[in-house]
Amino acid sequence: MHKIAEVFSQDPSIYGALTEAAYNSVLHAYPKGHKFEYPIAGKRWWATCSYNPKDDAVKFLVYDQGVGIPETLPRWKHWEKVREKIQAVPLVGPAISQALNDHSRIIEAAIDVSRTSMSGGHGKGLKDVVTPVDLITGAKVRLLSANGSVLYSDGKCIERRDEMLHIGGTLIEWTIPAGKALEEVES
Amino acid sequence: MTDIINIAIDFTKFPGGRYPQDGEGNGTSFREKFLLPVLKANKTAEVILDGALGYPSSFLEEAFGGLVRTDGYSPEKVLATFTFIAKQPGFQRFVKLIESYVRGAVVTPSVA
Questions:
Q1: Where are the domains of chain B?
Q2: Where in A30-97 does DSSP place strands (E)?
Q3: What's the CATH number where A142 sits?
Q4: pLDDT by residue (tens digit) across A131-159?
Q5: Given CB atoms, is A124 within the 8 Å cutoff of chain B?
Q6: Does the distance separating the beta carbons of B69 and A12 come in below 8 Å?
Q7: Structural domain tally of chain A?
Q8: How confident is the model over B24-50, as pLDDT tens digits?
Q9: Computed from CA positions of residues B35, B17, A60, A101, in that sequence, does the dihedral angle turn out positive or negative?
Q10: Which of residues 15-74 of B touch A (CB under 8 A)?
Q11: ∠ at Cα A140 (A136, A144), nearest 5°?
Q12: How many other C-beta atoms lie within 10 A of the C-beta of residue A132?
């Protein structure tokens, strides 16, 4: 616990990432009429963390049982930019429309748009989610949302895949190398 | 005379969310209680960012960008009114974010 508290309190970007992830759940995960897999759990988000002494790494997780990021993005003000980014990938024929349905591609493009957007107002949540990873060497974050899975590290998505089954919400898992986090903020 | 606003002491160590329904540490409440009175009185203030656990974008954008977008002050006026103290490791980034949110905020026309 001491190690977790040490990392959490000494790197301010982690607080922002966790808070924005939970806030995104509050704002977007449960649109009106949402059908819950587990109705008794309601419109909640859950967070937990752990420390692995073998890897000297801390994991933070935030989960909700909402519709998933790809479902909420068409209502986002940057949705057209997300579409453009996906369509910019050199694909032809049916592969283009397939790409627009790949949840992992949608999540990857949304992260990219949020990170690079210079406009004000809303839409910085995903940027905050990946900021600790951008700042701390060796950190990574996995976003599992709807049918998509994206692993982000070193300033880009390094792994992307789509699953047959919907995960039943959004799970975001940060892995922060404890020693590195402290070194980075102390330097 | 310059006012001093120490966010962690005067407001909260746990800032987050935009609106009052998001919790006590929300950006709207901070803007209305601490920032707007300084602008209305045509004074200046030093805002101490150190001491909080961090600053989510939604809080910073609503608190400082909201001065332009919602309250109609110019970015130049806002940035001339407030100076920022951020000495803790990793906190200078928040000053740059505030400046970008103030400059990037677009005025929302009021609805009568």
A1: 7-26+39-88+99-104
A2: 45-52, 57-64
A3: 3.30.565
A4: 999 999 899 999 999 999 999 999 999 99
A5: yes
A6: no
A7: 1
A8: 999 999 999 999 999 999 999 999 999
A9: negative
A10: 16-17, 22, 52-58, 61, 65, 68-69
A11: 150
A12: 27
Structural domain harbouring A164: 2-186
CB contact under 8 A, A23 and B17: yes
Number of H helices, E strands in chain A: 8, 6
Stretches where chain A sits below pLDDT 50 are: 187
Total residue count of chain B as it appears in this document? 112
Six-digit token pair at A162?
């789509």
Q: Is B112 a residue whose pLDDT tops 50?
A: no
Structure tokens at A118: 């210079």
Terminal CA-CA length for chain A: 24
Task: State the pairing for strand pair B44-48/B82-85.
Answer: parallel
Its sign, for the CA torsion B45, B34, A129, A89, is negative
Total length of chain A: 187
- Decide: A48 and A168 in contact? Cβ < 8 Å: no
Whether A146 and A71 have beta carbons less than 8 Å apart is answered as yes
